[in-house]
Specification:
Blueprint lengths: L2 H9 L8 H7 L10 H12 L4 H14 L8 H16 L8 E5 L4 H19 L15 E5 L10 H9 L3 E7 L4 H13 L10 H18 L6 E6 L5 E6 L2 E6 L11 E5 L6 H16 L1 E2 L8 H6 L5
Parallel strand pairs: 2-3, 3-4
Antiparallel strand pairs: 1-7, 2-5, 4-8, 5-6, 6-7
Length: about 300
Amino acid sequence: MSWTVFLQTLGERQEHALTPHELEVILCLNEEPGQSKQQLLEAYQRRQGPIEEEAFTQRLRTIYRKFNVSGRGYKLPQLQRYLVQQYQQSGPGLSRFGLSRIHAAFPTDTFTAALERLLHNQEQAMDDDHKVDDSPVETHKEVAILQTFAPNLEHYRAHLSRCLQAGVRVRILLAWPYSLAAGLREEVLKRYAAEPLAEDFAIQSSVIANLETLEATIRASHHRANLEIRLYDTLPSLSLYRAGSTLLAAPFLHGALAIHTFQLELDLRASDALLTGTLLNDFERMWTVARPFLPAPDRNWRNELKILFTN
């Protein structure tokens, strides 16, 4: 059942006694956290047309009452959390484990949206003057990437810089480019890839290119302490991209880069952490055995890189 169908079905239940106009408001709610009252109003106006803010606010108040949302604190996040919990428990399958959807390949727009949502909530939390709306503060304040190398890292460089500026912890976990594991990964990709790779493709140069991207990020940032980079000398089982409460996971298949195979999109707020907890624990184990490495602009890090695991 899709989110929209769930909201439609829930809103039509007699127990809630929603009017058609109130149901129109409910249908504009996002499944992802962080939607403010102003954003909800704008979504409503795009979908239904103009409405006076006071009339919209009155509809929201009635909806809060009908869903028993009361007490202190922002009410819109409370309503949204309740609806998401109901959605996760509403149907069969893996929704209660946090599985939101499965993508055919890495969903660039989805990860970008998750980063923007995390940044919005973090920047809002840093500015007390903006705490006048119904916007919750993101509790999962972290960005993390686990890859052999990340082909799309340069695409997200500006977002990473903004995360560092906003005080978000950023952890990057890549293969040591001189490791046996990196060599094996390169060999199977070249041998079994469904689509031909570039003639000059090499894991070693690809990881170094990622480190150069991170070096440029460090050079442009005054908050490098929030950036942590580690390199591993072992065999990972999957790639992970995390932004706040959104996690994307994909296996390392012989025939394709991880970003070109299916991706599991998971919600870290799931009521059952069987999937999400297992994946995050695997990241932490990899993080523990990996070694810190900083491609600092003022150091000869390329030579240091070669001997990282030699002692």
